[in-house]
Amino acid sequence: MERSTRQRRAIRETFLEAGRPLSPQEVLELAKRKVPSLGLATVYRTLKGLVEEGFLIPVVLPGEPPRYEPAGREHHHHFLCRLCGKVYELLGCDLALEGHLPPGFLAEGHEVTVFGRCPECT
Amino acid sequence: MERSTRQRRAIRETFLEAGRPLSPQEVLELAKRKVPSLGLATVYRTLKGLVEEGFLIPVVLPGEPPRYEPAGREHHHHFLCRLCGKVYELLGCDLALEGHLPPGFLAEGHEVTVFGRCPECT
DNA sequence: AGCAATCTGAGAAAAAGTTTTCATCCTTCC
DNA sequence: GGAAGGATGAAAACTTTTTCTCAGATTGCT
Question: Looking at the DSSP assignment, which residues form a beta bridge with residue A112?
């Protein structure tokens, strides 16, 4: 089990080259450049496997299909371009709102998404 | 067109009484207390209408089905209880990360979701 | 190279959420 | 009160996304 196939290598490389979170569809399109016969089922199977082995983590943004990004990065948030739909990583986090929680609420984590335009779409 | 029916009054009241964003399923359950025969299709139709007329606005959180809340509130964010799944409104917003954007990125808005436990689930 | 087990690709199927259909009911207006 | 047309509810149909099926290809190992 867990063979190193052309498809899996292509998908793994795609993430390293992209430098931003990718959706299954984006993975399919980008990785097809390396393995044109790539099928969507293989993308889903591979994403699932890469998450289980800890290479990827899922990124979920409001109203968006799931994306994946390489694991092991520092706490950060995301930028979603409203025009092209690409997601980028934003370094740093100024959020200090845990103090604003009403009594009785216990914060365990948070998620910040900034919407706007990316450099390519300005 | 746009009649005032028992169902629509019940759904509108449900939002005013709930004081927090509601999903279509939650609306169905809560409004059924007022109109037991209420059907899911009517909930969807009414939500759509209430959004169009400006009474409600959609609230989308990461990985969650859409919710709706009464329109006209100040800028605020949301708290999602990981146990009961209820969403609450958080007043205030300390976010100052627009300054952290890399060059070329233009922010138009943002969305903050805090995950944790609500008072009922502690 | 040869073999066995895993992997792949295409389409079918499943899952979840939302919309449509349609016969009947209910509001509105006269 | 009664007519007309929008509204309702139940179920079917649809979307969109993800998973499953299965025959054939590929990989890892001897």
Answer: B112
**Cβ neighbours of A110 in B, within 8 Å:** 112-115
Q: Which CATH number describes the domain made up of A76-121? A: 3.30.1490.190
- A48 in contact with B, Cβ within 8 Å: no
Using the structure, give the distance in angstroms from the CA atom of A19 to the C1' atom of D28, rounded to a whole number. 32
Mean pLDDT of A78-106: 86
How many angstroms separate the CA of B65 from the C1' of C15?
Answer: 14
Question: pLDDT tier at B58 (50, 70, 90 boundaries)?
Answer: very high
Residue partners of B45: CB distance under 8 A and separation at least 6: none
CATH number of B1-122: 1.10.10.10
